[in-house]
């Protein structure tokens, strides 16, 4: 915690100093921008504060090929068929929209899409640039950018209500963005950012040209270029890297990394290539050593990492190779599939833990609803759980979500309600009395169980669970459900 606080203070100083140094560094580097080049369309929107530029060759993206590719990958990872079927169903809804979006975008005259990220001591910001050729429809392109790939992002907000579930609303944050022609390009961003975009004093960033060139003709080509002011300010604010990274001078990063490129090819021949350009061959070796130190520290500090049997193989598969003065990682589809075999078990465990936590949260919310019902009915417990709790759990959609076990979403019911007594006051030992539990056919690693005092436990042993059901603390008025058959 102390290290994190110290890093925050140092980074704050870095941003403040960079705010002064960026303009000064830029003024010193001013020169006439290059007249041509494959990415000349984005040159007017690049200056010394530019952190990253992503180039997307929209026409080369084949959403219809992504579905079969992803299904193959999920099978290699041994994802349960039920989950594959659900994913395929979702992709059958989403991918046709994405295919139509690509066709509409190119028809409207959009071929290439740039996304630019700018450093700012106040608030970093970004914007999109679409080069406009003859006959391009700027209004249509703006409309399409508000709904990228037919899957607009959603901001979810919740308004709390005393004694009731929160009211959820979803909005598209891109709906308020606007598009405006600037020269021979369409700029798409938030209205409040346009003045900053128009205030960019374009100048040469030869490292940007090199970074984009390293990605070749990839469908998605991302260039990362540290702003000049940050290169100067960061070592002042934080002279040395944290001990977990070996404590080397920060200049190893700020002066040692010239640029980086991430290039991604679209399915069916998906591939990813990462290139990091170092100042020289010796620095490239030091950067590789820095990564090794970071991995070693991670294993030493994180128990879950140490206990992950696949960790070393995964690290080996994605670790960069030193090639002269560059670090490179290249993953084609066969390598990606091999990596999927290695990460599959780890992802399966992580996902299992996540859905287990979500299921426990569902049970906790259900028990809250039971207590609210009892408070308004003189201590009486619900008889028909889902029907009686409707006034207390919110919208039908929210109730449906709560009563669906994310580990087995197609199973009905997702949870079994145990009414231990007519009234909660008749329950003698609420902390030991089962109120609800995850429905099951065969006992696996365990199940989540909710108790009459509101707490939820993950019970691993089936015999222990059966004893809980029989022991209880009820007053004898309730009827326990029939237990699922033991495997």
The number of distinct helices, counting runs of at least 4 residues, comes to 16
Computed Rg = 28 Å
Please report the total strand number as a whole number.
Answer: 16
Structural class: alpha+beta
Tertiary shape: globular
User: Unreliable runs, pLDDT <50, ≥5 residues?
Assistant: 1-35, 473-487
Question: Portion of residues in helices?
Answer: 40-55%
Strand portion: 15-25%
The number of domains: 2
For the record, give the distance between the C-alpha atoms at the N and C termini, rounded to a whole number.
47 Å
Helix and strand topology:
Blueprint: H1 2-29, E1 50-57, H2 63-76, H3 81-107, E2 112-118, E3 125-131, H4 138-145, E4 155-161, E5 164-171, E6 178-182, E7 185-189, H5 194-198, H6 206-214, E8 220-224, H7 228-237, H8 251-254, E9 257-265, E10 271-278, H9 281-301, H10 303-306, H11 311-318, E11 321-323, E12 326-331, H12 333-376, H13 385-388, H14 390-393, H15 396-402, E13 415-417, E14 434-438, E15 447-451, E16 456-459, H16 462-471
Antiparallel strand pairs: 1-2, 1-8, 2-3, 3-7, 4-5, 6-7, 8-9, 9-10, 10-12, 11-12, 13-14, 14-15, 15-16
Helix pairs in contact: 1-7, 2-3, 11-12
